[in-house]
Amino acid sequence: MTITTKTERFPLAEVFTISRGSKTEAAVVTAQVVRGGVTGRGECVPYARYGESLDSVTAQIAGLPGDVTRAALQSQLPPGAARNAIDCALWDWEAKQAGRPVWEIAGLAAPGPVTTAYTLSLDTPERMRAAAARQAARPVLKIKLGTEDDMARLEAVREGAPAARIVVDANEGWTVEVYAALAPHLKRLGVALVEQPLPAGADEALAEIARPVSVCADESCHDRASLAALKGRYDVINIKLDKTGGLTEALAMRDAARAAGFGIMVGCMVGSSLAMAPAFLVAQGAAVVDLDGPLLLAADRDHPVRYDGSVMQVPEPALWG
User: Is 240 annotated as catalytic?
Assistant: First the structure.
């Protein structure tokens, strides 16, 4: 088998800002595996928060043996972006080789459309109100927060989109004091879910303080090994393939998390339709789906995932799987 990678950059339609910084493009690593004349593809988004870069991910993939299998891959690379790209490429290869869809090979039910959240990046209250108003017809809005001055932003988004279900993502940006002060207002404003309010590794306080709105683990949750430490602190986990290290672990983690009593959110980094297609399978039946990456891009791949408003349709086999 031949394994190749390349870096690709997709411009964003608008500057995307979270509490850690801003970006104007999605920089991804696209992996390709070729064996017997059949090609499989996968995509990952290296994330500096987890010590990853385009170069480090490319180097990890370059170190793999040419006869790597999906089963062996799970121990040859750690959970993370590099393993995700290859794991998904191997799934795609297997589907094309067999002439069967990935969902069937994996023993899953045939997938159907899902409704995704649409993300509003961190900005001034006035601009976030205007952004919410432009997207007010969408059923679910996810808003990026994570500062000490977020109350005005919350109020502004609710004014701009009075009927939307709201998911708040603090990206580890709050202190215990800020979260405790905001929590009652989250419920009052109809927020459905709060994602990662406190820093990973400093979130033990969540087991001791009131959680009037369900709290979701993101940076605190990577793969199945993360789950035990989350009990009592979080109600929901956010499964992202760039954290789990691919579809293989993501599916296993979804089952384990449900068995442990966690609700399921399926999210993504800002990437192209190639990254969304495998995550779409994990998103079936999830309480919250956040696979809006392509909606934030100015340009996408060939055979892109189709979105009818916020409804994500089944990806085409020509794209992946």
Answer: yes
State the sign of the Cα–Cα–Cα–Cα dihedral 294, 16, 85, 242: negative
| Active-site annotation holder among 23, 144, 231, 243 | 144
Q: Are 30 and 274 in contact (CB under 8 A)?
A: yes
Kindly name the residue from 23, 142, 231, 240 that is annotated as catalytic: 240
Residue listed under structure tokens 């004091």:
177
User: Is this model's pTM higher than 0.90 or not?
Assistant: yes
**23-46 pLDDT, tens digit each:** 999 999 999 999 999 999 999 999
CA distance 238 to 261: 14
What sections of the chain are H helices per DSSP?
54-62, 70-76, 81-98, 102-105, 125-134, 151-160, 176-188, 227-230, 241-244, 247-259, 273-282
292: closest CA among 276, 316, 314? Answer: 276
The pLDDT confidence band at residue 178, using thresholds 50, 70 and 90, is very high
Choose among 169, 134, 164, 163: nearest CA to 19.
Answer: 169
Residue 20 has pLDDT above 90, yes or no: no
- Token code pair at residue 173: 């940006």
187 is catalytic: no
